[in-house]
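Input.
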Amino acid sequence: MLIFRRLGFSLFALLLMFVKQLSAQPVSDSAKNASKVKTGWNVGFLPIVAFNSDLGLQYGGLVNLFNYGDGSRYPMYDHQFYGEISRTTKGGGINQFFYDSDKLIRKTRFTLEFTYLTEKALDFYGFNGYQAVYNQQWEDDSRDSLTYKSRLFYRHERKLFRTSVDFTGKLTGRKLKWQAGFTYLDTKVGPVDLNKLNKGLSKDSKLPDIPGLYDEYVSWGVIKPTDARGGRNALLRLGIIFDTRDNEANPMKGTWSEAIIAVTPAPLSSHQRGFARFALIHRQYFTLIKEDLSFAYRIGLQGVITGETPFYLLPYMIMSYSRTTTIDGLGGSSTLRGILRNRDVGQGMAYSNAEFRWKFLHFRLARQFFYLALNGFGDVGLVIQKVKVDRSAIPSTVDQSEYFRSTAESPHLSLGAGFRIAMNQNFIICCDYGHVADKRDGKSGVYIGLGYLF
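Output.
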C-alpha cells in the first residue's frame, strides 16, 4: 500500500494548523496594498518524511534561501539558492542544488543546477498515450491472483545525473529576452531491483519475480538495445522569451512566452546519433480581483525537429526555467496533475493547464508576510508525434491487445484543487490534488512541493 501522499498531506495539514494558531491579526486592505519590503536574507525550510511499503522510509529536507539586497526590487530577489537532500531506506534518493541570480553577471541572468536522482521505481507505461494499454488490475495485489502481476509492473529503475547552465539577457527593452544554455544528462536505466525492494518484507508482501513492462519491451525489441540501459547526452539550447509578468512566483497579470530549440549533436551523445527538439510555451495571467484573485493558463507544445529521441529522454520536458526536481511528463506533478506520471509519452506532445488562484488570507508572523491561497485547475494533454513501435519480434504467444491499441490518441484530462502557504511572495509551499477523467490514466494524485505549476 502506497502511503507517501497521505503522510505528506498530514504533515502539510499540521503545518497549516500551526501557522493559523500563531498568526497575528489579518492584514487590512490598506496594509495589504502597501509596500511590504523585505531586505537581506530570507530562509524557507520544509522537512520530508514519508513511507512507501515498496521503497521504504523517505527522510530528508529542503531549504530555499532568498537574498533581497536592499529591497528596492522586492519581490524580485538578487540571489536564490535551493537545496534538497532526501533518502529512502531502500536506495532511492534526491540530491539537488539550484542557484538563480541576475546580479552575479552584469545584465545577464544566470541559472545553475546540479541534480542526482536514484529512482528505484520510475513510472513507465509505454508510448503514444492511450495506444499503450494500462491494466490497473495487473498492479493491484488486492485483486484475484489470476490477474495480479506485480505492484511495480509499470516501473523501472533510473539513476539520473543532470547539470545545466543557463544565461538570459535582454534583446530590446525589458520584455524580449534571449536565452542560451547547456544541459548534460547521464541516464542509467534498468529493471526494478527486486532483491533490494523485497528486503525486509514478509513472504506475502514480497514483489513477485516476474518481468515488468520495461523488461518485456526490451526483450521484444520495442525498446532498442542501444537505448535499453540509458546513455549520456548533452543538449545545447537556444531560445527567445517574451515576459511581461508583474511577479515571477505568482503573477497577477502579464504574459510569459518562449520558443526553445534543444540540439544534441551526434558527437555529444553516447549513441552517436543526433537529434533536435523544440518547445513552444505560452502562459498568460489575468487579475479578477486586485491582489487576491487571478486566472492563469498555460499552453505548451514540444516535439522532434529531426532525428529520434532515445526512449528514456522522451518524457524530458523542455522549458526556459524550472525549479522542480523532476521535469518528466506528460502526467504527474509538473504537467498533468492526477494523471499517472509519464502516462502520456511520445516524440511530440501538447498540453494545457488552466487555474483560478485565490489568496483568501493575508497576515504577518514573526516579521514575515504570509498569504494562504486556494486554486482550482484543469489539465489536459496528448501525444501529437508518435513513437515508432516495432512489434515484429513479439512472440505469437503474447496477446498484444493487452499491451497495444490501434485506436486514435485522445486528450488526457484531469481536474483538481490545491492549497498554498506563501512566505514573502517567493517561498510557496503547495499541495495539489488532481483526479483523472478517464480510468485509463489511473485514479488521482496528491502532490506536496514548492511553488505554482507555472
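The chain has one domain: 4-450.
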